[in-house]
Structures are given as C-alpha cells and as structure tokens.
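hiii so my PI (J.) wants the whole complex modelled not just the main chain, which honestly fair. so below is everything: two entries, each one labled with what it is. i double checked the lines twice but i was tired so who knows lol
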Amino acid sequence: MRITRTVAGRSRRTLVMATTGLTATALLLTGCGDSESDSEGADANGKITLTVADFGQFGYKEAGLFEKYHELHPNITVKENVSADEKVYYPKFLQQLNTGSGLADVHGIEVGRAKELVDTKADAFADLSKVIDPGQWVTWKALQATTDEGKVIGAGTDIGPMSICYRRDLFEKAGLPTDRAEVAAKFAGGWEDYLKLGEEYKKKAPKGTYFMDSASAMYNGVVSSNEEQYYAKDGKAIYKESAGVKAGWNLAAEAADKKLTQGLAQFTDEWGAALRKGTIASVACPAWMAARISTDAGDAFKGKWDIARTPGQTAANWGGSFLAVPAKGKHVKEAGELVKWLTAPEQQAAVFAAAGLFPSNKGAYLLPAVKTAKLEYFNNAPIGEIYAEEAQVIPAAVLGPKDGVIKDTISTQINNMEQRGTSPEDAWDAATEAIDKVIG
Amino acid sequence: MATTTPTRGVHGSRPSRRAPKPMSPGRQAWRSRLWRFDDKASPYAYIAPFFLVFGAFGLYPLVYTGWIALHRVEMTGLDQMEWVGFGNFSKILQEDEFWTAVSNTFVIGVISTVPQLMVALGLAHLLNYKLRASTFWRTVILTPYATSVASAALVFALVFRADGGLLNWVLGFFGAGETNWVNGHWTSNIAIAVIVIWRWTGYNTLIYLAAMQAVPSDLYEAASLDGASRWQQFRNVTIPALRPTILFTIVISTIGSMQLFGEPLLLEGGANGAQGGTENQYETLSIYLYNYGWNLGHLGPAAAVAWAMLVLLLLIAAINWLIGRFVRKTAA
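here's the output for the full assembly
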C-alpha cells in the first residue's frame, strides 16, 4: 500500500507538472496577447511621447519644430524616426497597418502611395477633416488624400514644384553661365534644351564630374508636368501610351546614350556619396530635392549650389507628402493636434525657410517669410519667388494606386540604360514586364 | 510529515507505528485507473509542448500559405481573398524572373557550398593535430559564425564596392581595372558566395572536427604501421569515417543556400537589394518571394513561390538520398 501511495503521489505530481507544462505552452501560443506593455503611453504625470515616422526629408528637425512643440505643450515630447529611402519605408508601413503593431502616432505618406491608401486603407486612418479644414490646401493637393466620401486621411505637408539645382563653380569651369536667369534662359525651350546644355557641359567638364546625377530625375520632371501620367481618369493604367511617359523616356534614353549622367540610383548611399564628393553639376530639382541636396552634399558646398527655374516654364509637381494619423494609434487625438500644428501656415513657412520644402497650405503663400524666402545654401536663391509662381499653375495630376512603384520601376530601368548600356528597347520591355507584374 | 505528505517516500521519515488503513476497494480501483492513465498519458503530456508549438508555428503557417497560394490576396486588403486555383503557380512558372531566381539560387548554392565544405574539411584536419593553444584556434574558427548576417553583409558590401571598395583597391595593384562587383551576374554571385563561405566555414569545420575526434586512433596507428602517409591516412581512414557527417553537412548547407536571403538583400541594400539587383542578377528565391509579397504586395504569388521552394527542397533531398544510397552500396 505504501507503494501505491507513493505512486499516487508521483502521478499527482506528474499531472500537476503536465498541466503546468500545457498551460505554459498554451500561454506561449496565445502570444501573451493581453500584456500591452506600453512604454509610449502616458506616465503618472500625464506626459506622453508622440512618434512621427517619416522618410527622406520633412524639414521638421531643421526647423526645430518638435522642440518648439514641446515648449508649447510641456507634457508632450515628439520623437522622429526617419527612413532614408521611401521605397523601403512604405512596404514596412503597409505591414504595420495590417498587423496594427509597430505603428507610430503620425506617419508620412508619399504622394505616389496616396491613391492606393485612399482606395484600400482609408479605414485604417483617422479622419483629419474633423480636426483640420481641408480648404487650407491647394485644391489638387487636398484631393489627393481625400476619399470619395470626403474622408481626409492625410494632411498635406509640402509640394514639389520643379526647378533645376546646379553647381555654379562647375558650370563656370565648363564655360557655362552661372547666373540663375541666364542659366534658365539656356533651357527656356524645355527639357530638350536642358540636354543640349548637358552636351555643352560635357565638352569642357571638369574631370570626374557629370552633368546630371541620373536621367531618372529628369524623366520624373518631364512626366510630372502632365495631367495624365500613368493612369487615366477612369482608373485604367495607360502608362504604355501616355505621351508624358514617352517623352520622358526618350529624353532619358538620349541622356544615357550621350553619357551625360553619372548613372546613380537616386537616394542610395552612392548617390549621397557623389553629392558629398561634388561630382554632380545639376539635378532636376523639386523643392524637397533641394533640401535633400543641402543635407547630403554638406557644408563644403554651401553657397556653391544655385537654383534656376524649371526648363521651358513647364510647371510640374513631383512628389510632396502627407502626414497621416493611424486610427489604431494610442494618442489619436494628440497626434491629430500635432499634425494640425505641423501643417499650419506658420510651421510650413518655418520648414520652408529652414529646409526649402515648399508649403502646400495656401495660407503660407501670403506670409512674407515665404514670399521673400531665400536659401542660403543655394547662394541665396529666391525660392519663394521661383516656386510660388509655379505652384499656382501646376496641373492637377491624375493619380493611380501604383504610381509610386511604377515610377520606381521605370527609374530602375533608366539606371540600367545608364550603368550597363542596356538598349532603350530592352529596358522598356523589362520595365513594362515589371510594371505589369506590379499592377498584377 | 509522511502521513500527511504522500509526496515523500516513507523511508525518509519516521515510520508510524500503526499500519496504514487499508484502502476501500473503490478507491483502490480509482488509484489503479489513475496509475494506468498516468502510465499511458503522461508521455504525451511531456512531448505535447513541442507539438503544440510546431503546430502553431510550423504546420499551420505551412498549410495557410498553401491556402493563400490558391487565392489572389493583396497586402493592401488582407481580408479580401479571391479564388484563383493554380493561377499563381502557372503565373510564376511563366516568369523569366522566377527561373533567374532558381538558377541564381543554385549557382550561389554550389559555388558557396562546395569550396566551403572542402576548406572546412582541410581546416578540421589541421585542427585535429596536436598543436599549441588548440582551443584558441577552434574558437577563432567559429567567430565568423557568431557575427550577424547584417554586419557581415555590410562589411563585405564595403569590400565589394565599385568605387573605393577594398577589393578593387587591392586588385588595382595588380593592374586590374575597376570591377563593378554588384552589377555583374557572376561577380555578384561570387560576392554573395564569399559572404556565405566566410560565415559558415568555421561552423562546418567544428562539426567535422567533432566527427574526426571520434575516429578510433588505433585505426591511424595501424595505418601508419602499414606505412601509409598522412595524406593516405586522411583519404582512406578519415574520409570514410566522416561519410555520414559529410552527408549531414551537405544537407544542412543545401537547406541553408535554398533559403539564402540576408546576404543578397544587404549586399547592395535599399530598394535594389530588395529586388536582387537592378537586373535581378543576384536575386535568390527568397528575395523573389520577398519582393513579390512585400514590395509589390501580391501575397498569392509570394505564397506560391514558398511552396515551389518546398517542392524544390524535397527534390534535392530525394536526389541526396539516392546518392547517399548509391555511395553506401558501393562502399559495401
């Protein structure tokens, strides 16, 4: 009997252990779903931290806006997570939206993705029209982030009126004019003239320098000046027959063929390194690109860069972004307030003055700070004048869900023509094949 | 106390004078039923955790991936699934890019696995001799394995860079021109293979070394008495003894090279890395899957690629097994 007793004891122990094991496993499997460990939440003093996830250059750091916001609201600290490359940022952001985890309180959205998010993910965002009056923005900008039901998923930050950024010192060495107006006069006829200038530059180019970083920038400039780009109004993809795409592609092929570019994929490390080394003489330059150049090229080239009007007065908008508030965030209300403040005229003007990102808020255009703005880095170019005039006449482009990916795919193939000497026909075939896969 | 705590044996405590009360028959039956149940059921309870975890993190994803592969699902709308049958499979099989990825995966697999295992075998043989500070050398051999893929890939990215890369700089002394390693099909594949070799050689070396230490020394003594040289001993004693181990490392390396992802992704990095180069020149199957699912957001074809990879692995395993059987037969 003793034996049975011990056995019974053992079996009880076994049962206890087995159930403990099972329970532990079950807990493991449920993935600790209840423990919302939340370091970002409000602490005892009601202090909260808002995170802003963005990419490239939003200019808030340069303008010191987050510190200022903290001064105005001592209980709120704003942290910024910057990704260098939007192409890497966006897929990750989509995943975060799907899983609802890892989201920041405020997310940047590039215009090439706006349509897709408006079409498919509108529910995942807070409606900003409840906080901000969409009438503040340039009309076409506001529409880009508005659903058919009138829900606004993103507040416009900047727009990208086109211009040409160029290096005065290199132009001088190559025997070209250096004055803004004279340079602009050189390509008054349009982008074809810009290429001709490139050929002129190449004849006397300082050793190891190139006229352009990549023809893909010029291509984007050309396409952006059209109302119809990759999609028709009815939502059909028409990039194969789009006049703008054709014109842009042919010019890019020509630039690659004549070796006027360094053939660098934009926004990569190599591209940044080339700017730092100073081997690039000109860049097709929407307003935000100027900001990017001044950061990447660094202080060594301060004042050596300058900005001329876009070729042929073809008003174009390339890029520009929005700030959105994910509906699943922890501080939707506070995040909405932050976005409202960041996109208000005064703050957009401050960002413009500090980094050159051009305001999308109409109220900002009336502020003297914008009208008379000059960028010191770019030899005090009067960007207020240059961009404001253009912004008024920018065509309202038809957006499509895969604009961003299509643009990136074509840019990649342009790089192939530049770097590997792929023939334009092969590159175009590869591009269409890849794009059809994208639209899938 | 013993009487109240049956969890301790009676021997450990003072025996009580009274004999224990006989149990009621009902209770006894219950006890023995419990005992039988314990005997039968507790092993299952012990192994249950593994199977529960495997079911949740292994089997379920596998089956669900297969389910997704038969649908059209977009990253932008995970809840909308549209049945397409085997459409995704026929789609990827018709794509040139898929076959590029297959051939890249095999090329990189072969040019990384073969030299890696050869070098590992040689190194293990050297480490098997009596030498000073042998533990130190064995540790050093394993250090590359301990570094993360990311840091290794980033360092090698600097080595293989086109302008100002370490390798081009060294080759420059021998009069070689600038090679754009990342852009060429073969050069990029070699670059990735080098990262893999660097990371995994030490790991395989240690496995071989462990197997070598298990070879009885009297075999070597007998061989040297017969006048066999070191090399002959290596060929006729060591290698045959290591045959199962070599087969094991081949299988492991094959699976590893099939799933090659981090090295190609990070060699160039950014958006180019995520599509295996601007012309998919170093796109492996994992990158192809990732690009389809995460960059383009088409989860159906991505899931189909995952299953295609599984099928390929099973094929390779079958070939491996056949070769192994053939080798065993001839050895016998």
